[in-house]
Amino acid sequence: MEIILQILIDGLVIGAFYSLVALGYTMVYGIIKLLNFAHGDLYMMGAFIGFTFLSIFTGDGGVNTGLLGVGIVFIGTMVIVGLIGMGVERIAYRPLLLAPRLSILITAIGVSLSLEYTSMIGWGASYKVYPIKLPNDGLQILGTQISFAQIGMILLSALLMLGLRLFIDKTIYGKAMRAIALDQSACSLMGVNVHKIIALTFFIGASLAAGAGIMSGVYYGTINFMMGFIIGLKAFTAAVLGGIGNITGAMLGGLVLGILEAFGTFYLGGSWKDVLAFGILILFLVFKPTGILGAKEMERM
Question: Which spans of this chain does the record mark as coiled coil (predicted)?
């Protein structure tokens, strides 16, 4: 029982990271039916920008930042990467909204490579050790040691997801996003600034990915410029698993994938975790492409 609970907690932490990144995929797809395969690299950018600011604060000549300082770095990094996401939308995707889907896919791959190798040039190709470490102590629950780091990661991820859910449901901008997802042309005729809402969607998705990137760096302790590639694919898997275009589905899909991956790693070995994740993606694409919460759509030809 203790082992199962420990695996479950580990899976929830991993799944929380997947969920935050998957939200960006599903929000953008829900609005403009675009699969932004460069999204995982915004997660990586968040980890590196957070690393830079935390290194300045805690390195030689810096200050010993406390929880408030870490919070400021966290929010500031989310804003910066959100603006990068808006820039990507404006420069790379907006001119191609009416272009064939293949053109946008190729552009997304180009943006991904540009972000990766710009980061490699700026920060180097070697692994970086995050400048702050989380305490190892925690709580004993049902005979299982659960660290404060794990509790903090799960709670912070839940807070971000709850904030997004409230934003989508309660604010005028969230309602505009939902309206555009239903009928972009009608929204434009009604005076909604469609491009502004699309840019805001990219900002929010990129910000959440950046938050996950910082949390991952703090939790695992190391980062590198290729870290966004695999998690981008797994977050896409989570979005498909939950039902791409469905906000709640992305959250659920990430958590389910994280838990399945944690159990698969324990019982099959770490070398099988990627095989398991992408095997789940293939199964869902073949047998249930709408995902767990996705609805079937009828399209008139």
Answer: none
| Domain CATH code at residue 58 | 1.10.3470
What is the β-pairing status of strands 144-147 and 222-223?
unpaired
pLDDT digits (tens, 9 = 90+) for 224-270: 999 999 999 999 999 999 988 889 999 999 999 999 999 988 888 87
The token duo for 15 is: 């799944």
The position carrying tokens 């293939």 is 282
When divided into structural domains, the chain yields a total of: 1
* DSSP single-letter state for residue 47: H
CA distance 175 to 167: 9
**pLDDT tens digits, residue range 73-97?**
999 999 999 999 999 999 999 998 8
The answer to the question of residue 299 being in a domain is no
Residue 205 lies in a domain: yes
Closest CA to 4 of 220, 234, 266: 266
Alpha-carbon distance of 249 to 190, in angstroms, equals 29
d(CA 140, CA 122): 42
The number of beta carbons lying within 10 Å of the beta carbon of residue 13 is 22
Please name which of 137, 158, 176, 281 lies closest in space to residue 212, comparing C-alpha atoms: 158
Task: Centre a 10 Å sphere on the Cβ of residue 20 and count the other Cβ atoms it contains.
Answer: 31
For the chain, list the strands marked E by DSSP: 128-129, 138-141, 144-147, 222-223
Burial 187-203 (b: 16+ CB within 10 A, else e): beeeebebeebbbbbbb
DSSP 158: H
Q: What single letter denotes the amino acid at residue 39?
A: H
In a domain, 277, yes or no: yes
**Residues in CB range of 88: below 8 A, 6 or more apart:** 36, 38, 42, 111, 202, 206
Contacts of 140 (CB under 8 A, 6+ apart): 146
Q: Which letter does DSSP use for residue 126 in this model?
A: S
pTM confidence score = 0.90
Q: Which tokens hold the place of 157?
A: 């991820």
Q: How far apart are CA 94 and CA 106, in angstroms?
A: 14
